[in-house]
Automatic annotation (TrEMBL):
The lineage of its organism: Bacteria, Bacillati, Bacillota, Clostridia, Eubacteriales. PANTHER family: DIPEPTIDE TRANSPORT SYSTEM PERMEASE PROTEIN DPPB-RELATED. InterPro entries: BPD_transp_1_N, MetI-like, MetI-like_sf. Residues 95-296 form the ABC transmembrane type-1 domain. It is found in: Cell membrane. The keyword Hydrolase does not apply. GO terms for biological process: transmembrane transport. This is Oligopeptide transport system permease protein. It comes from the Bacteria. The keyword Methyltransferase does not apply. Keywords: Cell membrane, Membrane, Transmembrane, Transmembrane helix, Transport. GO terms for cellular component: plasma membrane.
Length: 310
């Protein structure tokens, strides 16, 4: 098992290095000047700004300095548009907001999706199954920003049940979380339905039913444990979506999260913030996949045994 974990960890470090390197050079290959403005700045002013941020150095030197600060100090640099404000502080202030909103949506989507998928499988070709599949089709067909606008209209404008926008407590997260969770519910409901139907058809399930195993025990001990394994694999990448999936929703509901800040920094060409945010999300994604791989190895010994033979 130790060999399996170390191998996955090495892959994770290599992938993170590649992502950081590729992101850095792609960001600096974008044409244009982050300090461009309608009014042309004096040449000496532009020169001083470039010198302050190290933009007058060769691109390879900038890369080496960036990696040195990142690896040795964990420093992602300073914002161009907000002098004195570091990228680290921006992420530290904004990421918890996005994490709370995205985490709530992921938990809601995962839990309801699993439950609805199991119900649809056990009630195959009945009205419960058709209802769940209808919800799943809606969740896939309706974009989150369209659903967000509809929820805002009905529950804030029409009936004034929830606040229209802003951030200030649990009630402010309900509509944004629902907007994001519907797609997740749809994915897991469809996925669990097909997995459960396949598991239910296995011989050991029929044997358990013949022995008089209760419905609850059958679902929990036999069906759920075997059918949920592929869903756990999907859960890893979606942890990173806690942050990336909130970008548009945060703008619609005026939520002060990292997604809304990222969108504004793209328009302002604030390269350090864009680069730092991208690296943050990429590292979170890679680490989440690594954790899921390790958990998968613990849950199913066959995976680490086959991995050790390679």
């Amino acid at each position: 098992m130790l060999r399996f974990v170390l191998k996955r960890f090495a892959y994770m470090i290599i992938t993170i290095f590649i992502v950081i390197t590729a992101t850095f050079f792609m960001m600096h290959s974008i044409p244009g000047n982050p300090f461009a403005s309608p009014k042309k700045l004096p040449a000496q002013t532009v020169k001083n700004i470039n010198k302050k941020y190290g933009l007058d150095k060769p691109i390879t030197t900038q890369y080496v300095l960036f990696m040195e600060n990142l690896v040795l100090h964990g420093d992602l640099g300073e914002s161009y548009q907000y002098p004195g404000l570091t990228v680290n502080s921006i992420i530290a202030q904004r990421a918890p907001v996005s994490g709370e909103l995205g985490g709530e949506a992921l938990i809601l989507g995962f839990a309801l999706g699993i439950i609805l998928g199991i119900v649809a499988a056990f009630k195959k070709n009945q009205w419960q199954d058709y209802t769940v599949m209808f919800i799943a089709i809606l969740g896939i067909a309706i974009p989150s920003f369209v659903l967000a606008a509809l929820l805002q209209y009905f529950f804030t404008v029409k009936f004034s049940v929830f606040p229209t926008s802003g951030w200030g407590g649990f009630k402010y997260t309900i509509l944004p979380a629902l907007s994001m969770a519907l797609g997740t519910i749809a994915v897991y409901a469809r996925f669990m339905r097909s997995n459960c139907i396949e598991v239910i058809g296995q011989d050991y399930i029929m044997t358990a039913e013949a022995k008089g195993v209760s419905k609850v025990a059958l679902v929990y001990k036999h069906v759920l444990r075997n059918a949920i394994m592929p869903a756990i694999t999907m859960l890893g990448p979606q942890i990173a979506m806690i942050f990336t999936g909130t970008f548009v929703i945060e703008v619609i509901f005026s939520i002060p999260g990292i997604g809304r800040y990222f969108v504004s920094c793209v328009s302002d060409r604030d390269y350090p913030v864009i680069l730092g945010t991208t690296i943050f999300v990429a590292i979170l994604y890679i680490i989440s996949v690594f954790v899921v791989d390790v958990l998968y190895g613990f849950i199913d010994p066959r995976i680490r045994l086959s991995g050790g033979k390679k």
